[in-house]
TrEMBL record:
Pfam hit, one: ketoacyl-synt
Family (UniProt): Belongs to the thiolase-like superfamily. Beta-ketoacyl-ACP synthases family.
CDD domains in alphabetical order: KAS_I_II (cd00834)
InterPro entries on file: Beta-ketoacyl_synthase, Ketoacyl_synth_C, Ketoacyl_synth_N, PKS_Beta-ketoAc_synthase_dom, Thiolase-like
The protein's name in its UniProt record: 3-oxoacyl-[acyl-carrier-protein] synthase 1
Residue ranges constituting the Ketosynthase family 3 (KS3) domain according to the UniProt record: 2-421
Keywords: Acyltransferase, Cytoplasm, Transferase
Source lineage: Bacteria, Pseudomonadati, Bacteroidota, Flavobacteriia, Flavobacteriales
EC numbers: 2.3.1.41
Oligomeric form and interacting partners: Homodimer.
Length: 423
């Protein structure tokens, strides 16, 4: 079998907006979600800015019962449940606490590290010999698959329900894993996505590595500068993105809204050789991933309207653009338009791929390409490969037919997905 795979629902909890409608407006208007956090200053972080979804108590009560909220201390689960349930509802699928198991539906929802704050709380309680106060939910909040488990308590999916983890490529990988399962006829629909915890206990290691910017604590919105000559590191972020992938036959039968089609993609690793390392991708692996994704999608390189890159605001941005140019065999004005969501949200780590996939699909369904904040001083090595208008500072409103989305993670792992307008 080789079934066509379409996207019928989406949800998001991002630093600059929560909910699809608000997120779409934030993208079009170039709204930043990066803010200064006094807690990071108190803890003597060099980088005291970050991107974190703003979740009100009222919103929490729309997704969690009072019993569930009691003892809930895992931001990743909060973001993932909000995004996942929104996507499921957006797809017109039922959420019935007394409903039967849905054997045709599954969940592939990834994370990098989950329940850091819950772990910290548990360590203190154990050290104080108060294990009884850990509560009955400490395990589900700290196990990696806690997010897919928590989501399934609401959705009752009977197909594959699992959590993947591949650093910053986790969310894009989840989408491709779901698409492969649906393509082969093993599932009718899968909720795919990823989430990341917030806070100093997640971001502290990166601050220690000196790869976060520290000169923008008084100008938070200027801190994330993908493709800029003055980029000095990524701004840490968090959140969740979710997409309902479904086989076309099922979607049409239900009369579902179709945002876009998953045309194809590719997952690989550079093997941490030939320039690839724990923190940097092997360029050959990246280029193979791009070429194989295009082949799998059955398109030509010059049919790509836009590239939503990984582009984290580090020295690797120029290398990433060079890899795209080499793999596509295009240069200058021939290159697709390029953007990076991280200029608006920071780097959402294991949530980045899924949040950026949602942004990529919105560009196709609503025919716009969001701009790159803080890219006014384009890096000279990038400007040598693409013309200035291909890296817009503000949103462009035009027909968008194909978007290529890439994610490259720690450990030299790569994922590239090709989304297309549904015909």
């Amino acid at each position: 079998m080789n079934k066509r795979v379409v996207i019928t629902g989406m949800g998001v909890a991002a630093p600059n907006a929560t909910g699809i409608a608000a997120f779409s407006e934030a993208l079009k208007n170039g709204k930043s979600g990066i803010r200064f956090y006094p807690e990071l200053e108190r803890l003597k972080f060099r980088c005291q800015i970050a991107g974190q979804p703003e979740i009100s108590e009222e919103l929490l009560q729309n997704y969690f019962t009072e019993l569930e909220l009691r003892g809930l201390n895992c931001s990743g689960i909060v973001y993932g449940v909000i995004a996942g349930v929104e996507a499921w509802k957006d797809a017109g699928l039922p959420i019935d606490p007394k409903g039967e198991t849905d054997w045709d539906s599954g969940i592939i929802f990834g994370t990098g590290i989950l329940g850091v704050d819950k772990f910290r709380e548990a360590i203190h309680l154990i050290d104080d010999k108060n294990t009884r106060r850990l509560g009955s939910t400490s395990v589900v909040q700290t196990m990696a698959s806690g997010i897919s488990t928590y989501l399934n308590s609401k959705l009752a999916c009977g197909n594959q329900v699992t959590t993947n983890s591949s650093a910053c490529s986790t969310g894009t990988e989840a989408v491709l894993m779901a698409a492969d399962r649906i393509r082969s006829g093993k599932a009718k629909r899968i909720l795919a996505g990823s989430c990341s915890d917030s806070g100093p206990y997640v971001w502290g290691g990166f601050d220690a590595m000196r790869i976060l910017p520290h000169k923008y604590n008084q100008q938070p919105e200027a801190g994330s500068r993908p493709m800029s000559a003055t980029a000095v590191g990524f701004v840490p972020g968090s959140g969740a993105g979710a997409l309902v992938l479904e086989d076309l036959e099922s979607a049409l039968e239900r009369g579902a809204k179709i945002y876009a089609e998953v045309l194809g993609g590719h997952i690989n690793s550079g093997g941490q050789r030939n320039g690839g390392s724990m923190t940097a991708p092997n360029s050959e692996g990246v280029q193979r991933g791009i070429k194989n994704a295009i082949f799998d999608a059955g398109i030509r390189a010059d049919e790509i309207t836009a590239i939503n890159g990984h582009l984290t605001a580090t020295s690797m941005d120029a290398t990433e653009i060079a890899n795209w140019s080499e793999a596509l065999e295009l240069k200058g004005a021939e290159m697709p338009v390029i953007n990076s969501l991280k200029s608006l949200t920071g780097h959402c780590l294991s949530a980045s791929g899924s949040v950026e996939c949602v942004a990529s699909v919105l560009q196709i369904s609503e025919d716009f390409i969001f701009g790159n904040l803080n890219s006014e001083d384009l890096h000279p090595a990038i400007e040598a490969l693409v013309t200035r208008e291909k890296v817009p500072e503000k949103s462009i409103f035009k027909e968008v037919n194909v978007v290529a989305k890439s994610s490259f993670g720690f450990g030299d792992v790569n994922a590239v997905v090709i989304f297309g307008k549904f015909r």
